[in-house]
Specification:
Elements: E1 3-5, E2 27-31, H1 41-49, E3 57-63, H2 65-70, H3 75-93, E4 99-103, H4 111-121, E5 126-130, H5 135-150, E6 154-158, H6 180-193, H7 235-244, H8 249-263, H9 267-270, H10 283-287, H11 293-303, H12 313-334, H13 358-367, H14 373-385, H15 390-403, H16 408-418, H17 424-435, H18 450-457, H19 462-467, H20 484-490, H21 499-516
Parallel strand pairs: 2-3, 2-5, 3-4, 5-6
Antiparallel strand pairs: 1-6
The chain binds flavin-adenine dinucleotide (FAD).
The site of flavin-adenine dinucleotide has 28 residues, from helix 10, helix 12, helix 15 and helix 17.
Binding site for FAD: 267, 279-283, 318, 321-328, 421-423
Site (Electron transfer via tryptophanyl radical): 353, 408, 431
Family: Belongs to the DNA photolyase class-1 family.
Length: 517
C-alpha cells in the first residue's frame, strides 16, 4: 500500500487526556514539498477518511527559515515556495479548506510543538503528510509523530514523492539495485504489475461551508510573507524568476502538456542541445511537488500508446529520465550515508583533492571566470536564473572536480544554494555520478573536454553568447576556446588551467587514491 498508518493504538499512560468526541473527526494535512491539490496522496487519503457530512479537513504549511538555512535552500527556491502559498491558499479556499500557515522560530518551538499547538487549537485528531526521505527530514518527522502520538493524535505517512515507493524495486537478492539500468528494468516490471502505482489519487472533497463558520478566521490564519530576510534575492532575479517560472499546479500542468504535445517526440534528438529548449524544464515543479512524478509518467505513457517501453523513442527516453529521479531517491533511502556528506564508494574518502588552489579556483568557477566559455556561460546562467541544462550541469561538475580537483561536495553545496530545483537525492546522486564516487557512476577517466563539449552541444555558440557578454562578438570558430590574444582583446579571462595538464593531474590523483586503497 502507498500509505502507512504509523499510529494505530498509541500507548496511553494512566489518566492521560483522551481525545474528545468532537475532536475525533477533524483531520489535518501537513504540506511540505508538495504544493498541489491534484494527485496528492496524503490529501486524497485524508479527504477519504473524513465524514462527508461535516467540515473536517484542514491544511497546514510551516515556513521554516532556520531549517531551510541548514539545508542550504536557495533564496530563489524559497521565493518560489513563498509565491506558491497564496495560490495554494486560494485553491483550498475554493474547497472551503483552511490553509493554516505558521512561521517556525526554533527558540520558541520545533515543528512538533507547533503542529501539536495547531492540533489543540483546531481540535484535530489525525495528521497526514507525504513522506520525505532525507536523513534530517526523517528525524524531524519521527519526532513530530512521537509527540503527536503521545498526545493521542493519529499520524498517517504516505509514499507520494516516488512513483514506486523506496524499497520496492529490488534485485533477486532483495537489495536496492545499485545499477541504474537494472533498477529501471525492475522498475518497469513493478509498474507493469501494479497499474495502481500510476493511478491519479482522488481530488479532495470540499468541506461543508456551513460547518466552517467556527473556523472562519482560519482562512487567513497565518501571514504569508513576500520574502524572508534570511534569503535575500536581488529584485532583478526575483522579477526574472516570476517571469520564467510562474508558480502553481496549473502552470506545471500546462508545461507538462505542452512538453508532451510539442517536444517529447524529439526529446532524444534535442535534449542535449544547449541552444534549443528541448527538455521539459519541469524540475522546479517536480521538486516542489507542483506536479507529481506519477502524472508525468502517466501522461507520457498515455501519449505513447499506453506503453512504458517501445513506441515513440522520445517518450521512452523521457520517462527513463524521470526514473532516474526515483533511482536516486531509492539509493538515498537504502544508503543514507550519501545524505550525510559521504561518498557512495568509500575509497573516495581518501581522494587527494587540491588543497592549495581549491579556494581560488572554486571562486573562479562560481563566478563564471574560468576562461572556459562553456563553463563560464553555464555558471553565469545558474547564478542568474537558478536553472541549468543537464549538459551544462555535467560539464561544470566535471570541470570542478576533475580539471580543478575541487572536492565535488563543494560544488554540490553551491548547486543547492543556487538551484530552483536543488534536490538532495538528485543533486547528490548526479554529483557523485560525475565525480565517479557514486553508485553506477561514469568512470573517473571520463573527463569532459570543455571545448569539445561546447562544439558538440552549442555549435554556433548561441548559449555562450547569451551568457558571456565579453564573447558576444567573438567569431564562431574561436568562441569555444578563444586564443590568448582574442581573450585579451575582449577582456575575457585566460584559462585558469590547461585542460590537458589538468586531465593528467586528475588521473594521477585517481591512481594515488587507488594505490592508497
Ligand atoms: P527533463 O530532461 O525534461 O527530465 C524530466 C525530469 O526527470 C526532470 O525534471 C527531473 O525531475 C528528472 N531527471 C532528469 N534527469 C535526471 C537525472 N540525471 N537525475 C535525476 N532526475 C532526473 N535534478 C534535480 O531535479 N535537482 C537537482 O538538484 C539536480 N542536480 C544535478 C546536479 C548535477 C551535477 C547534474 C549533472 C544533474 C543534476 N540534476 C538535478 C539532474 C538534471 O540535470 C535535471 O533534473 C534536469 O536538467 C532538469 O531539467 P528538465 O526538467 O528539463 O529535465
Amino acid at each position: 500500500s502507498e500509505s502507512t498508518q504509523t499510529s494505530t493504538d498509541p500507548p496511553r499512560s494512566k489518566g492521560a487526556k483522551r481525545v474528545k468526541e468532537d475532536e475525533a473527526n477533524r483531520t489535518l494535512v501537513w504540506f511540505r514539498r508538495d504544493f498541489r491539490l491534484h494527485d496528492h496522496m496524503a490529501l486524497a487519503r485524508a479527504s477519504a477518511s473524513t465524514p462527508a457530512s461535516q467540515s473536517h479537513l484542514l491544511a497546514l504549511y510551516l515556513i521554516s527559515p532556520e531549517e531551510w538555512i541548514d539545508h542550504d535552500e536557495a533564496p530563489i527556491k524559497v521565493d518560489f515556495w513563498l509565491r506558491a502559498l497564496p495560490i495554494l491558499r486560494k485553491d483550498f479556499a475554493a474547497l472551503h479548506i483552511p490553509l493554516i500557515i505558521r512561521t517556525l522560530d526554533r527558540a520558541k518551538g520545533q515543528h512538533a510543538d507547533v503542529i501539536l499547538d495547531v492540533c489543540k487549537q483546531y481540535r484535530i485528531s489525525a495528521v497526514h503528510w507525504n513522506r520525505e526521505y532525507e536523513v534530517d527530514e526523517l528525524a524531524r518527522d519521527a519526532s513530530v509523530q512521537q509527540l503527536l502520538q503521545t498526545h493521542d493524535r493519529q499520524v498517517y505517512q504516505h509514499h507520494d514523492q516516488c512513483i514506486v515507493p523506496p524499497g520496492q524495486v529490488l534485485t533477486k537478492a532483495g537489495t536496492t539495485s545499485k545499477v541504474y539500468s537494472s533498477f529501471r528494468n525492475s522498475w518497469y516490471t513493478v509498474v507493469a504489475r501494479n497499474p495502481s502505482l500510476l493511478k491519479e489519487s482522488r481530488f479532495p472533497r470540499a468541506n461543508e461551508p456551513s460547518a466552517l463558520r467556527e473556523l472562519h478566521e482560519a482562512f487567513e490564519d497565518g501571514h504569508i510573507p513576500e520574502s524572508l530576510d534570511q534569503f535575500p534575492l536581488a529584485e532583478s532575479a526575483r522579477e526574472r524568476a516570476r517571469r520564467d517560472f510562474p508558480v502553481g499546479e496549473e502552470e506545471a500542468k500546462k508545461r507538462l502538456h505542452a512538453f508532451i504535445q510539442k517536444k517529447m517526440g524529439m526529446y532524444g534528438e534535442n535534449r542535449s542541445s544547449l541552444a534549443l529548449q528541448g527538455t521539459s524544464i519541469l524540475s522546479p515543479y517536480l521538486h516542489s511537488g507542483m506536479v507529481s512524478a506519477r502524472s508525468c509518467i502517466r501522461e507520457a505513457k498515455e501519449a505513447n500508446g499506453n506503453r512504458l517501453e517501445g513506441g515513440m523513442a522520445g517518450a521512452v527516453n523521457w520517462m527513463a529520465e524521470v526514473v532516474w529521479r526515483d533511482f536516486f531517491r531509492h539509493i538515498l533511502v537504502a544508503h543514507p550515508k550519501v545524505s550525510r556528506n559521504q561518498p557512495f564508494k568509500a575509497e573516495f574518502t581518501r581522494f587527494p583533492w587540491a588543497s592549495d588552489s581549491g579556494d581560488r579556483s572554486f571562486q573562479a568557477w562560481t563566478q563564471g571566470r574560468t576562461g572556459y566559455p562553456i563553463v563560464d556561460a553555464s555558471m553565469r546562467c545558474l547564478n542568474t536564473t537558478g536553472w541549468l541544462h543537464n549538459r551544462s550541469r555535467m560539464v561544470v561538475a566535471s570541470f570542478l572536480c576533475k580539471d580543478l580537483l575541487v572536492d565535488w561536495r563543494k560544488g554540490e553545496r553551491y548547486f543547492m544554494q543556487h538551484l530552483l530545483d536543488g534536490d538532495l537525492a538528485s543533486n547528490n546522486g548526479n554529483w557523485q555520478w560525475v565525480a565517479a564516487s557514486g553508485t553506477d557512476s561514469q568512470p573517473f577517466f571520463r573527463i569532459f573536454n570543455p571545448a569539445r563539449q561546447s562544439q558538440r552541444f552549442d555549435p554556433d555558440g548561441a548559449f555562450i553568447r547569451e551568457w558571456v557578454k565579453e564573447l558576444r562578438d567573438c567569431p564562431k570558430e574561436d568562441i569555444h576556446a578563444p586564443s590568448a590574444s582574442i581573450a585579451q582583446r575582449l577582456k575575457y579571462p585566460e584559462p585558469i588551467v590547461d585542460h590537458s595538464k589538468a586531465r593528467d593531474r586528475a588521473l594521477k590523483a585517481f591512481q594515488q587514491m587507488r594505490s592508497a586503497s
